[in-house]
Amino acid sequence: MLFNSIEFAIFLPIVFALYWALKRDLKLQNLLLLAASYVFYGWWDWRFLSLIAFSSMVDYFVGLQMGKTEEQSRRKLLLWVSICVNLGFLGFFKYFNFFAESFSDAFTLLGTPIEATRLNIILPVGISFYTFQTLSYSIDIYRKKLEPTRDIIAFFAFVSFFPQLVAGPIERAKNLLPQFYIKRTFEQDKAIDGLRQILWGLFKKVVIADNCAEYVNIIFSNPSDYSGSTLFLGGVLFAFQIYGDFSGYSDMAIGTARLFGFNLMKNFAFPYFSRDIAEFWRRWHISLSTWFRDYLYIPLGGSRGGTWMKIKNTFIIFVVSGFWHGANWTFIFWGFLNALYFLPLLLSNKNRRNLETVAQGRLLPSLREFFSILLTFALTVLAWIFFRADNLTEAFGIIYRVFSLSIFTIPQYLPGGVLAMILFLLLVEWSNRDKEFGLQYFGSSSLKRNVLDYVLLSAVFWCIVIWRSGKELEFIYFQF
Amino acid sequence: MKKAAIFFIVFILVGEGLFRFDKEFDFLNRNANATIGIEVAESELRDQVENGAFEIQSDQLRVLVLGDSYIYGSFVDPEKKFSKQLQKDLNRSDLGEKQAVVLDVSRASNNTSDNFDFLKYYKDIFKPHIVFWSYHYNDIQDLRSMEETVSEEEITVRDEAAKRQLSTWKFIIKRIYKTSELIRFLSSSLQRELKLNGIVLPVGDFYALTQKTYHEKNKDWQLTKDIFEEVIKICEDDNMKLIVYKLPIFNLLENNALFSKIDATVFNFFKQHEKVHYLYGYDDFKGQDSYNYRVSKYDGHPNNNGHKIMVDRTKAEILKIQQTEK
Known about the structure:
By secondary structure, chain A is mainly α.
């Protein structure tokens, strides 16, 4: 079920009403959330429900068993069971064909051609998200940072919680699971805030992302027909498409969870206002970056073991992050490129210099900040070209054209309306850059400010009605 | 309460403003995209016919295709458009010594009188054996001449009269209803959704067309019949066979009952004319899922599959005519 579909518009109010009608019984509420989540997921393909159920079952029992023993070797064995089952599913469904083809290509290069066995398998939606979520549960119990749960309904509901099931944020058991144990009370302000966040997410998805997608698809379907300037514009539009698409989904997920009294972690913090790549990665897909930091980078030694260790671990984390996005060399290169961008900051110890919000307490950024933001954005656009291209050859072809003299020509497409919408998005987000999301209520007793807020809310609502793309496009991150 | 009232007023005003802005500036170029199929197909054959370079030969089976964007194929792959496919299929079938030549003069938004003008023009220079006339239920619109359209002054006079009859408030509400872009959009969106579920509210163009226009006493329908009487006579005089294909609406195949009144009226008219080969298009799509034949949920144009089915039916009818001729 898509958040931007009629089905969801019917599903959500029904679940919401039933949920709060059951407010006296926490267990029933959790059971309802579990049932609703399975309906939500099964709407896409009910056969894959067994996969989530199995994965949840394994981690539930692994957790219980780990809690019963202090024996380190047994705990380790149980952890490996969880890792193998979860990553096994992920590897099979997502990466089998990629590895088979890569091996075949490698042998062909070595002069011994072998035919790759390709499997005709469907990638279960959201598998990368819920796999990482359940894994974090087992790892945290292994590290004794979390007590295993005995409440099977709460645990299954935690793994399949529908607002964030298919595209994150990738929640940590430490944050989300305890919320299933405590009584939730309906708070009007929280619910209104949730609705505002849903509205803003919907705007980013159906107005920004889907309208950008129309041009991006045209430009990237035949890049050799376009000038460097058009291709760069295609990259810029893709940057906003993927931002609108993914952060829009996260906003809708967080907003929806708030309607049910849950707090999910922030997943995007206005990343295109970043002054360097390190800051960008602290603000983009936060739940994934921090997951890799906690469960991969730190166990690898993090930044403790000298320069080479730092460089090696940085490259590993970025490349793995790229690979997480998809079984294609383009994603791996995208990760590699970001690691290259990151390297100078790391080596000069400047990777943590921009921790606070840009231009805090000021209306506008300084000239230096402005150009840093522009440069960072341009670098991310170049990296997005690799992310969006069908293969590396095509991506390098596009980059070659972008750096040719045709970059100085007028782009073959100039979608004024879409660019104006992007400008509107940037203005709204800039004015609220110290808040949780772009449309968060800025709270005021002044009538003038309230009217301004009403105008903004109304404008966003009507923009969705008038300028939605009209095509019910899937979210890009569903494929990851 | 005061806050809610202010919010409601702001909400409506912002909506109205944005709708007007979009209408004025076509902000996301939607209308530009929508006009893509409006141009007439620029075909070599059509140029030749118009320039007098087309040679009439005895071994030809000439078919003239008339209609609107549905038959022109605004959203269909060039090679799969009705006329192209029909010519190809006819030439693959058993036409004896004959070579089929299909001239497509259909054009988006053509109505019955436009098609009639095209027929009169092309019948002399193309000399078709078969005239294929695709009939869309909205071809009845805009038939009357400009003399009958109402001038701005008359509208003002009518408004003044209406104002005198109604109380000020009622008049204001009526004016708002008629001039508000927001209301226009919301009402047409609502009607569009309801239509897809087989429901038509008793207001608006679609209701008027499907329920009120196809009446014996209606001037537009009378005019349509007069035009067709003339068309039939011309075809008889010039020894041309006339095929009238009543188009289904491809996104409403499951709700064809919406058009039952129209279908009955049109059928009753043509059944009086034995020489007309009347094809009821919906017959070929009955019980089918519109998803397979429409351009989109909200667009009734046929897609590649829709054109293919129409071609099959038309080809069969033409071959039948050819057999009878022999």
